[in-house]
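Sat 14:20. Reprocessing the chain from the morning session after the first attempt stalled halfway. Input below, unchanged.
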Amino acid sequence: MKAGKKMRNMKANGKIVVVFPDADAAKSAEASLGSETGFSRARIECKAEGKSLRITIDAHDIVAFRAAANGALRNLQVFESIEDNESEVQ
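Finished this time. Tokens:
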């Protein structure tokens, strides 16, 4: 078996944990990211646990994992900027 073919068959998974100022913000982020379904080769699961948000990614390969992780982190960045703007308005 060639090394390249072996690498393509490798699965990739990991977890990202983000701590928010309070549990409400973590639940809002979970609701925001929970609808993330645009990946055919990766599955993303988000779970709020108190003030933390746990993002679990299971992917068919490392490229799909990186794409899913980038997408989740980009969405978190958007969520953070929306939260910041709402707090400035209030």
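The helical segments are 3-8, 23-33, 62-89.
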